[in-house]
């Protein structure tokens, strides 16, 4: 079993996933636009270039998303959860934290804590909450 986070965006999923690919060193492996849907599927003209499905792969990890299609599925900002990343080195944690924080809001600066070699939390420029964690050395 694998749990995969699926995020919803307010029309900027493609830009967000291109940004994440650069932050994490991953690759966007799928981009399906609403305009790619079959003709019998009703599609508002303003949604044709938006992402129906986008997939990012980083090693053996996957993150997926789409742009919310209003009015059927209106966008609501993420509340009450975060995407948590577990990293192997403090340097890697620092690099990814600072990359994601660019243009976003830092909630807790990345730092050593009693439970982690590095931990920090932020909301990125696209409104996604992240927790970056690097466990202490064994």
UniProtKB/TrEMBL annotation:
PhnB-like domain segment(s): 3-132
InterPro entries found in the cross-reference section: Glyas_Bleomycin-R_OHBP_Dase, PhnB-like
Superkingdom per UniProt: Bacteria
Protein name: VOC family protein
